[in-house]
Structures are given as structure tokens and as C-alpha cells.
Design goal:
It is a single chain. This protein has six helices and seven strands, in the order ααβαββαβββααβ. By secondary structure, it is α/β, with parallel strands linked by helices. β5 and β6 form a beta hairpin. The radius of gyration is 17 Å and the shape is globular. The termini are far apart.
């Protein structure tokens, strides 16, 4: 009886965590820094590119795993001017993510994502989303993964945040225009 109760408690506690695909995390770890290198937005003299991975309470291990993959797969030309931090959504805009040039949004409750996206728009931060569904909420970039991998750019979010992305990115990307990906 005690085992069943303990199992139910553990099961209920883990239901809040979202499911992440390890292969998809590796793909993001390789592509996100390269897209960040194509961000030419001027941010008050900040030269270093800094990514902050935001996570929901149960997903700290996923954020740390993604951080490790990014640092492992970072191209040598980006190593000196690039850093990766992780922080919970509750800390958005505070110590962990202060001075970031981009946010990676892992899955979370809508109100937490809305708060992070509002900050990103105000601070002119490039936003990446693990889930394509966050494009409709205002994330700037996501990925389509199939036989080939394509970045998806939310053109409205880019305009609202006044981001200056390199034209090369638009040549390879799919565009999300607020209703569909084309």
C-alpha cells in the first residue's frame, strides 16, 4: 500500500513536466547559436551573445542538458563571444537572464510564456521556442524538423521587437505570418 501511494505521489509530481525529445534538443543546440550569429540587432553596446534558456519548475534538467549540448556543439568561431545561462520563468529579467541577447523558451504555462515574450519585445531579444505552437503567441523563431530542418521565422514578432536579422536567414527559413507557415 505504501509503495502504491509513493508511486502515485511521484507520478502526480512528474505530470507537470513536459516531454522533450533528446534528438530535437541536439538539433536546437546546433542551430540556435548559428541563428543568433545572424542577429544584427544593436543592443546598447552589448558585443557578447548571451542565450538564456527559460524553463518551468520540473524541467531544470532539460534546460541544463540543452545548455551542455549547446556548449559542446558551439562552432569555434563563436566560442569566445557566447554564453549560455539557464533560469526559471519566474526569474525572467532578473539575475540569470540579465544582459541576454536571446531567450530559448521551453514549454510552460501560457502566462509565463506571455511574460517572457513581453520582456523580449521590450528589450529587443531574439526568442526561440521549442514548440512551434509558441509562434502564434509571439516567439520569433522555431524549427520544423522532418527530412530536412528549417528555421521558422515569425515575421510579425521580428517586426514588433525591431530585430535586425541577416538576409541569409530569410533565404533558408520558412515564414510564419500569423496564421500559417509558408
Amino acid at each position: 500500500m505504501i509503495r502504491r501511494t509513493l508511486f502515485l505521489i511521484l507520478l502526480c509530481g512528474s505530470l507537470q513536466a513536459y516531454i522533450y525529445n533528446d534528438s530535437l534538443l541536439i538539433i536546437y543546440s546546433k542551430i540556435v547559436p548559428r541563428i543568433m550569429a545572424l542577429d544584427n540587432t544593436q543592443r546598447g553596446g552589448i558585443q557578447k551573445r548571451r542565450l538564456c534558456i527559460l524553463y518551468e519548475n520540473g524541467d531544470a534538467h532539460v534546460a541544463e542538458k540543452l545548455r551542455e549540448h549547446i556548449l559542446q556543439n558551439l562552432p569555434s568561431r563563436l566560442k569566445n563571444g557566447f554564453s549560455v545561462e539557464i533560469g526559471p520563468y519566474e526569474e525572467t529579467g532578473r539575475a540569470e537572464c540579465a544582459g541576454s541577447t536571446a531567450l530559448m523558451l521551453l514549454d510552460a504555462r501560457p502566462e509565463k510564456i506571455a511574460r517572457a515574450l513581453k520582456l523580449a519585445e521590450r528589450e529587443r531579444l531574439l526568442t526561440f521556442s521549442y514548440s512551434n505552437s509558441l509562434l502564434e503567441r509571439g516567439a520569433a523563431v522555431s524549427l520544423i524538423v522532418g527530412k530536412e530542418v528549417y528555421p521558422v521565422i515569425n515575421i510579425e514578432a521580428v517586426k514588433r521587437s525591431a530585430l535586425k536579422l541577416d538576409a541569409a536567414l530569410f533565404q533558408i527559413a520558412r515564414i510564419y505570418d500569423g496564421s500559417k507557415i509558408r
